[in-house]
What we know:
By secondary structure, the chain is an alpha+beta fold. The protein has a domain at 63-117. The protein has two helices and five strands, in the order αβββαββ. It has helices at residues 6-36, 96-102, and strands spanning 63-64, 82-87, 90-95, 104-109, 112-117. The strands form two sheets. A three-stranded mixed beta sheet has the order 1-4-5, with no helix packed on it. The protein has a two-stranded antiparallel sheet with strand order 2-3. A hairpin with a 2-residue loop joins strand 2 and strand 3. The longest helix has 31 residues, at 6-36. The protein starts with 5 loop residues before the first helix and ends with a strand.
Amino acid sequence: MTLPDTSWRKLVARVALVSAVLTLAFVFALPALAQGRPRMPKPNPDLPDAFRQVLPRGRIASVDRPRFVPATEADIPDDAWVLGVAEGGQAKAYSLNLLNHHEVVNDEIGGRPIAAVW
């Protein structure tokens, strides 16, 4: 069987070439992808059946040793929400925008270790 139109032949050849390239790329990338893929934990038998753990414990990075600036130098809007902590004559504020992404800040205030959690 012959294809009468040369543009049709070119299209078929391009589709075949792209398919072959994508298949080869997938075959060569698959082992690398499998090694770096995080593994989900086995379900905890103590949890109810309806509970599904989305992220394994410890997968959200905490902020350790945060750096602070005076409120007048802070690059956040005046109406931004913060979690404030005061202890031993010292006060600190943690941006809720930051805590929405990290959830935990390990810090120290008034000489005592704290965890600011959101």
